[in-house]
Structures are given as structure tokens and as C-alpha cells.
Amino acid sequence: MAKTKKKDTFDMFSNLAESLDQEPETKKVSEPPAPAQRKRKKTGKRSDPNYIQVGAYIPKTLNEDVKIKLVRHSGDFSDLITELLEQWVND
Predict the structure, then answer these.
(1) Residue 25 gets which letter from DSSP?
(2) How far is CA 57 from CA 18, 21, 67, 81, 87, in A?
(3) Residue 24: predicted pLDDT
(4) What is the pLDDT of residues 14-70, one digit of tens each?
(5) How many domains does the chain have?
(6) Domain span at residue 76?
(7) 3-state SS of 31-52?
(8) Is residue 35 one of the residues assigned to a domain?
């Protein structure tokens, strides 16, 4: 019985090798589509070279409270941080 399993395994790999040999060697690789052109001018702090992105770890509850207050007062998080840091530096 062990010889039958070995022969079946050998036949399986042999058949696989034959099928791979029969496949065409040249496969056309499709090029990814070109990225769509922007229709508008880059604006905002992200594309302004005078700004840099920074990160900080703050408590989740504080972050939630800040977001709520900013939404209520139509504020911007970046502007808030800038204002607070400028005050801290100037003190």
C-alpha cells in the first residue's frame, strides 16, 4: 500500500510538471492604469511646505471632548493646536 501512495504522489507531481511545461511561457502583464489627474489645485495645510504633520498620544476622553467642542464652535484641530503651542512658546 505504501508503494501505491508513493506512485500516486509521483504521478501527481509528474502530471503537474507536464501541465506547467505546456503553458505558454510568455504571459502578458497588464500595466496598471495611470493615476487620474487632479482637476483642482492642491490647497490646504497638507500641501503647504510651511506646515508639518506631528502626532501625540492623548487620553481618548480628552480627544472626544475636544472634537465635540470643535464641532460646536466650527473649529479646526490644527488651528487649536497651533494657537495653544504659540501661547506656550511665548510665555
Answers:
(1) S
(2) 58, 57, 15, 13, 20
(3) 61
(4) 777 777 666 565 666 777 887 777 787 777 888 899 999 999 999 999 999 999 999
(5) 1
(6) 55-91
(7) CCCCCCCCCCCCCCCCCCCCCC
(8) no
